Structures are given as C-alpha cells and as structure tokens.
Amino acid sequence: MARLADYFVLVAFGPHPRGSGEGQGQILQRFPEKDWEDNPFPQGIELFCQPSGWQLCPERNPPTFFVAVLTDINSERHYCACLTFWEPAEPTQEAVCLEDAAGREEEADEGGSGRLSPGTSGPPGQLFAPKTLVLVSRLDHVEVFRNSLGLIYTIHVEGLNVGLETVVGNLLTCIIPLAGGSQLDSVEDGVRTISLGAGDRQVIQTPLTDSLPISRCSVALLFRQLGITNVLSLFCAALTEHKVLFLSRSYQRLSDACRGLLALLFPLRYSFTYVPILPAQLLEVLSTPTPFIIGVNAAFQAETQELLDVIVADLDGGTVTVPECVHIPPLPEPLQSQTHSVLSMVLDPELELADLAFPTPTTPSSSLKMQDKELRAVFLRLFAQLLQGYRWCLHMVRIHPEPVIRFHKAAFLGQRGLVEDDFLMKVLEGMAFAGFVSERGVPYRPTDLFDELVAHEVARMRADESHPQRVLRHVKELAEQLYKNENPYPAVAMHKVQRPGEASHLRRAPRPFPRLDEGMVQWIVDQATAKMQGAPPAVKAERRTTVPSGPPMTAILERSSGLHGNSARRLEVVRNCISYVFEGKMLEAKKLLPAVLRALKGRAARRCLAQELHLHVQQNRAVLDHQQFDFVVRMMNCCLQDCTSLDEHGIAAALLPLVTAFCRKLSPGVTQFAYSCVQEHVVWSTPQFWEAMFYGDVQTHIRALYLEPAEDRDPSQVRGDPWALGGGGGGGGDWPVPAHPRLWQGWEEPAEGERSALDVASEQRRLWPMLSREKQQELVQKEESTVFSQAIHYANRMSYLLLPLDSSKSRLLRERAGLGDLESASNSLVTSSMAGSVAESYDTESGFEDAETCDVAGAVVRFINRFVDKVCTESGVTSDHLKGLHVMVPDIVQMHIETLEAVHRESKRLPPIQKPKLLRPHLLPGEECVLDGLRVYLLPDGREEGSGGSGGGPAVLPAEGAVFLTTYRVIFTGMPTDPLVGEQVVVRSFPVAALTKEKRISVLTPVDQIPQDGLHLRSCTFQLLKMAFDEEVGSEKAELFRKQLHKLRYPLDIRSTFAFTLGSGHMPGRPPRATKDKGPSLRTLSRNLVKNAKKTMGRQHVTRKKYNPPSYEHRGQPPEDQEDAISVSEELEPGTLTPASALKPSDRMTMSSLVERACCRDYQRLGLGTLSSSLSRAKSEPFRISPVNRMYAICRSYPGLLIVPQSVQDNALQRVSRCYRQNRFPVVCWRSGRSKAVLLRSGGLHGKGVVGLFKAQNTPSPGQSQADSSSLEQEKYLQAVVSSMPRYADASGRNTLSGFSSAHMGGHVPSPRARVTTLSNPMAASASRRTAPRGKWGSVRASGRSGGLSGDVGSRLAGRDMLGPPQANGAPPDPGFLRPQRAALYIIGDKAQLKGVRPDPLQQWELVPIEVFEARQVKTSFKKLLKACVPGCQALESGPTSFLRSLEDSEWLTQIHKLLQVSVLVVELLDSGSSVLVSLEDGWDITTQVVSLVQLLSDPFYRTLEGFRLLVEKEWLSFGHRFSHRGAHTLAGQSSGFTPVFLQFLDCVHQVHLQFPMEFEFSPFYLKFLGYHHVSRRFRTFLLDSDYERIEQGLLYEEKGERKGPQACRSVWEYVDRLSKRTPVFYNYMYAPEDTEVLRPYSNVSNLKVWDFYTEETLAQGPPYDWELAQVSPEPPEEERPDGGAPQSRRRVVWPCYDSRPRAQPDAISRLLEELQRLETELGRPPERWKDNWDRVKAAQRLEGRPDGRGTPSSLLVSSVPHHRRSLGVYLQEGPVGSTLSLSLDSDQSSGSTTSSSRQAARRSTSTLYSQFQTAESENRSYEGTLYKKGAFMKPWKARWFVLDKTKHQLRYYDHRMDTECKGVIDLAEVEAVVSGTPTMGAPKTVDEKAFFDVKTTRRVYNFCAQDVPSAQQWVDQIQSCLSDA
User: Fold this and answer.
1) How many Å apart are CA 1833 and CA 1613, to the nearest integer?
2) How large a percentage of the chain has pLDDT more than 90?
3) Of the N and C termini of the chain, which has fewer Cβ atoms inside 10 Å?
4) pTM
5) What is the distance between the terminal CA atoms of the chain, rounded to a whole angstrom?
C-alpha cells in the first residue's frame, strides 16, 4: 500500500527579495509541515508551479492544470500536480509591480507596459496575482490529482459547505494499493474507491504489472503532433544518448510528450536528466554536457537557438531539428523499414484501402487510448526483435549474496550479424542497457509481457515478417494486453466529482483562498497514521519465477557470407591439412596449406580449425615437432589476423586455451608454447576481450559448484575451458564453439538433465532464503574463491600473451598491439567503472610509475592490474584478496620473463627456416647494384595477369623473393609463394627514372599473414611493385632503400644519371679527370660556343644555368636588361651577323657542325634551302636557312639553323621574336612536295588581353613606339611568309574550291577586314564532299567504306555535336569546309591567345582559334590512366566494366582524339595548298605533337625507321621539347611531376599505325621501345631540354671521333641501328607503302584502342625493352633419353600471364628467319643478315607473280587492291606440316577462294622461300660453300665462303656468304694438282682426316678442310672437272 499524496502545498505570488519587480513564488502553507521519514519534502516547488516566472496579470485567467516531474538524489521521480488560479492582487503586490512597470517605461520600451492595460473584469488598473495548489506524490495518477485539486478549488469558488481542512486531510491520508492488481486476491484489492468528504467518489485502478509504463494517450498524441519519421528519429536519439528538447506553448503537452517518449523506450529505462517542464530560471541546465529529455515553453525558443548539439522537437509546429554536428544512427535494416510500415498501418488503417476500386466499408478506427497501446505494441515487438536471444549472452558471475551478471556484447553483435551496426553498438554501450541487464538479467524474478515476447513469440514474429495483416493482428493482441494492464477493470471506472460552474473564474470571488487550519489537518493525518501502525504491514507478494531464455540467437538479416561461404569442401580441406600435420605427412600438408590459408578467410573454416586442433590436445598439453609447430602457428596466425579487437565470432576465445596447450621442446627443460608466436594481434591487448573471457570462465566454474557430480559430465568445464563459454541459456553453441561434440551445430536447447548456468542460478536464488546463515556464508566464500582463483589464472594467461618473446621487441609490440595506447585507454575504461577509485589506489601501490612506460614489464603489470581491479571489484572480491592479487601480479610477470629468456635463447639456436635462395637479376653492362637484395613479398596489385585472371594460367603472385636497386633499375626477382604454381621465376622491374609514386604501406605477408611494413612503387612505364618486407628486413634497411631510391630518382645534376655514368669513369660527386687538349676538339669548341652565347645574352646569364622559361609575370615583355643586352650586341658586335668570311675559326666549326644536324639534312631533302660554304644564297628560292640563332642568342630553345623567308633580314628576326612566347617566332619546319604549302611552328603570341595588361603593370614597359614597332615587325614577317609561297593552283580543279556553292556558307558575307574563322561556328562548314578523295582513310575493320558524309569540322573541333549526319567513324571532312576562297595562311592558335592578334587587312591569313588542353591536364589524365591500367589493389567489382569506367574517367583517349582531330585538320589545309602556322602554348608541347603528327600523316618518308628518327630529332629534340622538365629528371624538377607529352604523341602514332598497318616501316614494338626509353635515362638522347643545354653539357657534338673502341651505346638511335642489323624486332613485315599517300585516320574515341604498352606485362623476364636482358636461352635440341625411352617433347606451356607471347610464339616470318639463321650456323656458314634474306624473298615473290616472266609485277606487298581490303595485310598461318608462309593478299579475287587454293598458295610461297639460294648470279657461280682454309705461314685456320667460277676459271673466297668484297682469288690456270691432305696444327678438331685436301699451285700450296668427307670429295671432283674442262 502507498500514500496517494505526500504533500499538499499552497504557493502564492510574492515580491522578489532583490526588488527586481519580477515577483517570485512563496509557500503560504504546506501539509504536513513535518517531512515524512521515507520521503523528504522536495525543494524548488515554487519554480515549477509557474515555469514561465511569477507575474501579475491584468485580467483574470481561467485556472490551469499540469503535472511537473521532479527527480530526487536517489533517482526517484516526484509528480507535482499544479492547479493555478488568479485572485485580485493585494496593494503590496501591486506596488511592486507598478514600480517595476515605471522603471521599464523610463527605458522607453513602449511594449513593456502591455500587461498593465485595464482588465475586463474588475475596476480599471486592477491586477491579478496567481496562486497555485500543489499536490506532491510518488505515484502517477494524473486524473485523480486533477479531480482532487479541482474539488478543492470548486469548494473555494462555489462556497460549498465543506471544510477545506477535511478534504486536504483526507487527501493526505488516502492509502491505495500498489501495482500488481492481478496478483492480489480480489477486485477490491486492485481497485480502490476514495472519497475526500465532499460528496465525491473516485475509482483508482492500479496497473497489473509495475514494470510496464502507463502512457494513457501520450504516445498517440506524440505521433499526431510529430509524425512517424520524426518520432523514430527521437526514439533513436534517446536510445543513443543524445540531448532531446521539446518545445510547446502547453505545459501539459510537454509532460505528455516526455511521458510518451519514455513509454516507447520500454523495456529500457531512461536514466539521464528528465525534466518534462523546465522553469525559465533554470534554462542554463540546457548547456549540460550529459544527455537529457527536457521540455521548455515555446516562449523561450530564442534562448535555445545557440545550442549546437541539441535535437529540438517543436510539438506545436510538428518539426524535429537535428543539428549538423549530430548523427543519429538509424535502426538496422530491415527493422527500420518494417517498423515504419507497421506504424503507418496503425496510424492510417485506410492507407491499404485507398487504391481499391470497390472499397470495403471502413471499420471504425480505434479510440485514441487504444491506438496509443497499438503504437507501443509496435515498439515492444521492435525491442523483442532487436534483443532476441540476449539471455544467451549473459554471464552469471556471482549468484550469492546478490546476483552479478555481465552481458557479452561482442558475442551478441557477432551472432546477430550486426558488428558494423552503429545503432545497436551504441545502445549496448549505453547506461539504459546496463540498467536493463542488471534488472532483467536476474534469473529468478517476476516476469512481464516483454519477457514472454522474447521467450515465446520470436518464431512467430519471424514468420509474420512478410504478412502485414498477421503483423497487425499480433500488434492488436499486444495492445489489448497493454490496455488491460492500465485499465484492469473498465466496468467499475465511475467518478463523481463536483466541478465549478461555467465562467466561475470571472465571478468576483467572495474572498481570497483562505488560510487553512494547520492543526486540524495535522490531527487528521496523525489519526490515520496511528490507525496504520496498528494494522499489519502490507507485504507486496511477488510471484517470482525462472525467466525463460527463449530460442537461440539468429542473425537479424540472413546474409550470404559472400565469397568464403561455409562450403563443405573448404572445411574438408582444413580438416585434411590438420590431420596430415599431426600424422607427419608434411609434404601433403605443405601442398594444402595455401588453400587452407585462403579458406581461413571464412568464419566457418576458422571455427573448424579450432575444433580440429582441440581434438589433438590431451591433458591440456600437445607436444609437437618443429615442423608441426610451425604449421599450427601459421594457421593460428591466419585465423587471428581477421579477428577484430572485440572478437565477435569467438575465434580468439576458442584459440586461447590452444595457444597455451601446443608446444615444442627446444632443449631439455626448455619448452616453447604457441602463445609466444601469436602475440602480434590486436585482440590480446583489448581489455573487453579479456573481461568477456574471464566472466565466461567464472560462470563455468560457478555452475560446476552447484551441479550434482552426476550432472557435471564435461570435465573441460571444471578445467576452465572457454569452450563451455556459451551463454547462460544452454551449454554453449555457435559462439564460441564448445568442446562438446554434440553441440557444434549452432545454438541448441540444453539436453535433458543438463542445465544452463542461468537455470542453476535461478534454482539457487529460490533456495537462498531457506538456507541457514552458515550455509549462506559458506556458499559466498566458495564463489569468491572461485573468482579469485580465476583472476590468478587470467593474470598468468595475460602475461603469456602480452610479454614478447624478445624483450628488445618491446617497442614493436607496443606499437603493434597498442599496449602503449592502453595506458590511457584502459585507464579511462576502469575509472568509468565502479572499480575506478580502487584501481587508482592499487596502481600506485604496485610500485610501477608511469615514467617507466619504456619498460614492457611495467606496462604489462599495469595492464593486468587494471584488469584485475575491474573484474574483481565487479565480482565482489574482498579488498584483502584484491591486495593479495596486486602483490602477486609483478611476481607472475617476472617469473614469466625469466622463462621467456631461456626460450628466446634456445629458439635462436634453432636452424633457421630454409628461405628460398635469392635469385640474382641479370644486369646490363655498366649497371651496378646500389643495394643488394632485400627479402620481400611481391603482392598482387589488381592487374589480372599477375594473379591468373583473364589471361589464363595459375596465380604467380604473391611471389617471394628480393628487391634489388641498381644504378638503372628497381628489380624484383622471386618465385610464387604457392608451391603448386611451379618453379617459375617472377621478374618485375622498371627504370628508377620512371618512378612516379612511392608510399609506405602496411600489409599482411602472404604466407604467415603477419602485418609488415611495405612499399608501393608505381612507374610511368606501367609497372607496379607492391611489396611487403620480410621480417628479417629491419625498418632501417627499408628506410635506407627508400632514401637511395629517392637519391637515384632525383639526382642533383643530369650528369649523375645512368646515361652519363654508364661507360664513363665519371661517378656522381667525383669530378672527371682533366686531360690535355690536343688542338681545339669539338667539346672545347662547344664550350666556347656556350661562353660566346652567354656573353651575347647579357649579364643575367653569366652563371651556369639551365634554360628556364621566364617567370609568369615577366612574360608580357622581355626583361629590361635583356632588351639592353640585345640592343648592345646589335650595335657593338656587327660581326655576329656577317657572312662566313668574317667568322672566327671556332664559329666556322660550329657552323659545319650545325649543318650536319638532323634538321639541316631534312631541310635539304625538302628543298627548303641550302647553306653553301660561301653562305651565298640563291635568291630565286623563297626560303633560306638562317644562321641567326647559331649562338642561341635569339631563342635558346630553337636549333642553331632556322628556315625563314628569303626577304626577311636576320636583324629583323630579333624584333619579331619578342612578340612570341619564349621568343619562339614562326619558322618553317616542313614543305609539301606537291602543293608547296609550308608548315610553320611557333610559340603562342604574348597576350594583349586582360592578362597582358596585368603583366604590363608589373614590368617596366618599353616605350609605346617599341611595342607598336614589334607588332608591325610581326605583321611584316607574316606578310613575308605569305609572299614566299607560290600561288599554287591546279588546272584540274583538284585543289580549287569551285565545286563548293556559297549557299553552304550560311549567308557568310566576306568583310573587308581579315576573318577569324571560329571553329565552334556550326555554319562554317560545308556539307558536301569530294567525289574522289586523295589519300587514305583509316580502316578499322574491313568495312568497305571509302568515306562517308562530311560533317562539320568546326563544331567537331570545338567538341560539339555535328549538325548534319555524322561522318562514319569520325573521319575528317573534305578540306572545303572553311570558305570558298582559301586564305594563303591559316594560323591555328589557342582561343585565349588569339584575342589580341591584329587582323590582316588584305585577308591573306586567317585565324583559327581552337581550345586545347594544357600540360597539367595531360599530367592529371595520365595519373588516372596509370591507376586504371595498374590499379594497385584488387578492384571492388570484377570484370572489364570497372577498367573501362576508370579509363573513361581519365579522359586520356579524349585527348588523343583531339590531337588527331587537329592534326587531320592541318593535313587537310596543307593538302589543299594553304600554309599553316601552328602557334599553341609555349610552342614546345602540343605544338610539337601536332606538327610531328601532321608531318607523319603527310610525308611517307617519316613513316620509315630513318625518317621517324629524323622527325623526332628535328621536331622534339632540336626544337626544344623539355624532356628533362616533363620527365622530372632531376631534383629541381621533382615538384613539377611527370607529364608524358612525348608518350601521348607515340600513342597517337600507334593509333594511326593500327589503322594503316602497311604504311609504316617500323613495328608497333618500336613505338613501345621509344615509349619506355624516353623515360628510362638509359640513353642520353632524351635528356635535357634543348640543343643549347646539350651543347652546354658537351653532348651534342661528342659522337664524332671521340669514341675509341667499342663502347656502350649512348644514343638510342645507335642502339636501334645495331639491334636492327641482328633482329627484325623493329621491322614491320607488312610494310608496303604507296608513295603519294596522305593518311587521314579516324579519330572518334570509338575508333581508338587502348595501347597494349599500358596493359601488357611479362613476368618471365620483366619489360622486354632492354634487349640484352630479355634474351632467353635457346631450347635444348631433341635428344634421346639415356634409358632409351622416347625423346622428351620440346613442347612447353605458354602462360599468357607470365610468358612473352611474341617471344614464345613468334609469327611465321620471324620464325622462319630464325630457323634459317640456325640452319646456317649448324652448317658452319656465317649467318646472313635477316634483311638481305627478306629482301630476296620479296624480290622472288615479285618475279613469281609474272606468269610469263614479263608484264607488270603483281608485287608481293604492293598492289592496287582498294585500301580497306589492303589494310588487312598479310595472313600468317601455320600449316599442318611444318611452318608454311602464306603471303597471299586478301584481294577481291582471293577472298572467295577455297581452302585448297590457299594451300596451293602456301606451297608455292614455300618453294619460293627456299629457291632463294638460286640467286640472280647463278651463271657465274658454278659451285659454292664453306671451307676451312689454312692461312699463310703462322696464321690460323679460318672458315671462308668459296665460289668456284667456271666462266672466269677462278676459285674466289669471301669472309662470309653475304660479303660482296672478294678476299682472295686462286687462278685455276696456275693449279698443278689437287691431292688429299693431312691435318696440321690448329686444324678443326671434330673433322675427319679424309676431309682435308690440298691445292698445289705454281706459287704455293693451299690447305683446305671441308665440313665432312662427302663434301670434301665433291669439292675435289668439282675442281678436277673444272681443270679438265679447261
């Protein structure tokens, strides 16, 4: 029984003590005046009566009622029901208020007196003061309080004849039953009718279950006000401990909303600040750091604005505002969506029927009270689903004297599959859940609705998930029960309470509320108290039972476990491997190990491993041999590496007893346990893991204490194995795996007679009160000693796993396992627990100071002490025992350290595990090792090739080997870690200079799965080394490797690079030896040249400096001093521009050197002018070669000799150059042989736009006249260029534009001024096309298209869509697209630059502005391309889509497309007779790309090997592409990064090559070779930024005459020449050019292919571009086996992912050429050059093509077949027998031929191939072959090629067969005899004696030796016959 009301209080308005005028509440009376003993009077009631503050009112307001909630220090809630009414204010009160008002008026605040306006009731100026009746109770009966206070007010207002004292006295003495009506004997006990003595009657019903909250309608109202989503947000926010603030103008609504939110949280109790109505004076409470649920009047909304972390729910506006910094985790799916849909069904039942054609008659919706219960039922179901199976994760730590229960959070999350879920994690960590565990974890207690739901309804809820109607039915059933709990007896709910009349508050009350007689009230209270004391005390009879555990846990969402499913095959592999290990079949186990390590990624396999290992442990010990031990440890490490710190799946828990069981004997008395090898895992340093393990073991032992001996079947449980750790619900289960074999199948109900720990505890709690005191004491002591012994056991276990084997590794351990961090982490963890204070005190006692953190023993002792403090305090161990433990811990640790020292010492004596021998890489001549091999693992990097993937073949990565750093490369050599792959050597390397990215990573080693440091190296040659260092490689070595690599990648000076140090004595840092100059060598001349250039350039270049472009702000005008210097040189040194007669000797030599440069040779080939020795010019030529820049004085990045118009004087060029960026003025670089149009190149113009103005302000500008004069010079120069061109027109109209009607021009009217044809103008193009286009269109497939409809080039170039029908494959249109009348010169420039160009008044040149990309965009694009081709990690989605997507994102192909497009446009213009000036950016990146491509497409010469070399030397090297800068070759360029401009050009050439395979003499491999070596720094060719810098370094003219003897190639071209003589690798067999071809490739992205240079890789030898390294040893010949068996097959497996396919399977032609070479070598002949053989085959094919030997040759590779057929080229096919070579063309005739005809062709061509030995000179060569000839006196035998010529009667001999120069002649007229000879000294050893013969002449005797006897005989016969013929 309990009191209905504890206190009745009357509070009235009173003046503020500080005189502020506000007023405050004053307690006039309170009853009883003395505090109750069990319930003191709550403080601060006055504030809560008027939460908005005490103020007088100008009118009489109606009475108000609300309930405020106060919480006392014991967390008890007190309900304060407040009824407020207004009475006329007394004069004192009014005076206070008026003073206040006057003060406010003085402040000139007009609105301040608003509330003093005259009221409607009462005389003018009358004010009313509030007065409040307050009822304070611990019970929550709101309606009873409202009625009771209403009755008191009614008696006062209506003047009823009832004593107020009696009513108050009765109210205070009213006793009502507590909750639990159903547990009482009769209705009368559960329902109480009370009367307060005023003729009233009220029925009070107490709820059936105390634990269920009472909500009335509050939940339903909350949903109505805020809606489903908002309420769910608030629900999650409250559960995850966020701050929630309600706003409303109604106090009652605030308290209802708070009550509703709390009701939703059931079965969790909210344990933070809870204030439904917060008074205005206490608003600062809102800035408290702790979570809260608070309600505030909406009038104070402004004060809540600056709260940054508070979720505000506005009940009146229906909104919930969540601040940005607050993240509310949502419910886990699918619960979130399920709850949402069920709530909408409850709130809006008509929603389901809204779409029906024939709606059913609507059922009446539930009443508000019923709807409230239905909404609560939904949340009750939600909690049952969330917390289902929670009892299986309870640990019963103590049963007596009070139950101590812990919840195994990690196991719960792991079992439910919600490890990642933020919401549940936060809920389980919250205080509400801690309260839930301590309250509901108790095994023997009264149960309620939630317990039944979790235990019995889970299966039903799962089954109903997909049936909404069934869910709704269940919700309604639960709602009925909730409703019945609140209203157990609805029939008796009849109230009779008097109420005041209508508008009674407006009537003038007869008198103010009277003062009550305290004595009388006290007397009534005392009477009742005396009566109660006489009565027997009412004991609340609780019906306690054992709480059911319910069904086992299941995952909240059945997820498929993805890749590593629980497949029986995988588990079988694990079991087999373990059985092999323990049976000693090590070879078998080794084969299975990689598969096992892969399988152990899956959870089931890890459990299986633990079970299997457990079977091999007898008596807690398993002694293994060394190999077995290694295997077991590796598997354990693999298992543990994926364990998180919480160990949700119990893997670490299952392995913990095993790591202390498996061991090996190191020496007598020294045993090493497995724990010393598995310490590197984060789980061991996690306190929560150890606590869960400890509590699980304690529970097992406590259970064993109370079980009968017969029941305690499982000995492992007494031993303390965590196998029996499964929660209280049953004897174990899925987490972790119990030792009991029967229970391995997941969670099962306990068997008959086997009781869980919770069952045992429940039974013991039931018996506890009946036990004697002694027995109770004995049980408590037994339990405590069990906990104590387990604490000692765990102190030992923790020291095993935390102390490292090698104490020197303590630093490493702390870094890895995080013991260092635990110093702070576990500290906070303990202090937040109950054990906090104890832990702190003992920590200091244990004598380990924090200063000793470097000492690992101290750190471990502290860690264990904290653990012991926490668990022992929570488990109720006495403080004496705890002190004893603290004394023991340091001793345990010390003892263990001593044991470990012996183990460590002995383990070092073990023979080391045989690691594979390091494979040393092959090095180039001159390449030296900088760092010898560091053992590493090469890991897969996302390229499919390395790991088997799409290419086919087994996974050769990961591989184990070593990384070497040489002066030239980074090289990995090793072998696959998977022994099943085979003994393949894996090589991956790249030049140091190609390194683009290097970063440290931390990775797991593939074999042992131990985390190790690693490196990630990516190169711009598309190689990637992702390496993990072996544990033997210390961090110092790894760091040294990084430093050396950086030093080699970015040398200080270009002379320190490999290309310079190779083959020369010069090493970095050592100055080269000074040698005496004999005469002025070229190097000294080049030095003089540079000196002169510096003098000429003026004083700013005195220091030796690399060429740097002017800085950004100086680009507007040349710097002042430069101007001065140039003008001075013009005036003072007229000799610089004089003819040769005045040149100094050194200058003359410079001139002759310049003339020999590639540029000059090409100019002469093109007929662009000659430079005769007298420098006299042929005036008739339009252009001349000008030596104006021979000293590099005008432009440092240009070559020394330039082609300029004949009419322009050299001194004018100086001024012209100032208009262009970097002084790169327009010069001619190519002339069309047919149309005579010229191609010019230059840098962009200096901006005259806004940027130019901006620059001009920052630089001292020369006078206006000078600027004008320079632009005038520019105009004159362009005019000179135009006038130098012949007016070229062809009578046939091939190049005139008469065929184009001006109608196509869109009404374009030519203006009198020059035009700027903007290519983004869609009307600028013509839609017609030429009938017979010259030149060739690229064919991608044999599509038969010879062209298509022409599109709009302008819009194409601008990147916009075409207007007309699109051209097929993006082919460029005909050249007639700009306008009918052609300009003589088109200037292609950047849109931004051309704004300032003055138009040409005579319309002779035209500007074509285009948008181009910048170098930085190329750089960014390349980075993305690199990442797409070599990702570095496994892609999330497999298959080609992710690659294609990243390729598209890189925009690389788009840039290629733009380059090709612009180039084709320029080709068109040149072909039609107009000249073009390409003037983009600085003139050395995109300009070079475009100009080179244009020449390649227009001139077949550049498509030969020699021509392409010339093109690159001229356009890229001489014209100053900045190779060093773009390649970041030195430390200075490191920041700029790698920008592959040249590579992009090569990619464009490759695209053209693909479309025109017969037009190029060089093979695609040649392009890859250049792509690789332009960044490799192996050759000097691509170093430095201009010819000027090459001269400065003495590179340019060193090739001639300096080399003494053979030396390493310094130039890439020289290397290519040497290699080409030996092998056809750079040659394209399909080369069959048409002389006048102009190529026009398709450029649409869809026609472009990804260059295989980016994607292919050969792991057998590494990149194939260093030819010496890539040579494989020849296959051994087929031989009989010694045992007489069949010959071994010469077949070998070719893996596409490993071998180089072109190497392993060469094409037919290469193969036949190799075969020829081999045969010749076998025959002892000097092998002929492959090229001669090839040329002969081609010649023979031409001859064979003539049926009668006459007529036109149907040449082998030149034919008149239409190109789209020809581009398919040659078929190379393998015949059924041997190799046949079919060189038939797929012409229209042969395309329909049958297989037989192709066979005939094959046979014919084969015969041709071998007929090559019958040469054209056959009539002069009667007999020929190789013979050994003895030289003259004292000379050796030599093999020579002998030719017997019967016509000339001679025996001639040559060095070798292809030699054309005869070495000697024996005249047969002089021969006397031919006789058999004898071997002399030095003769060939292997030859038969009979093969020797002598030829005697009149002068001397010649000794010969044939290869064998028959050939010797033949030679003798042939010579004899020749002699006899004579």
Assistant:
1) 43
2) 29
3) C
4) 0.57
5) 152
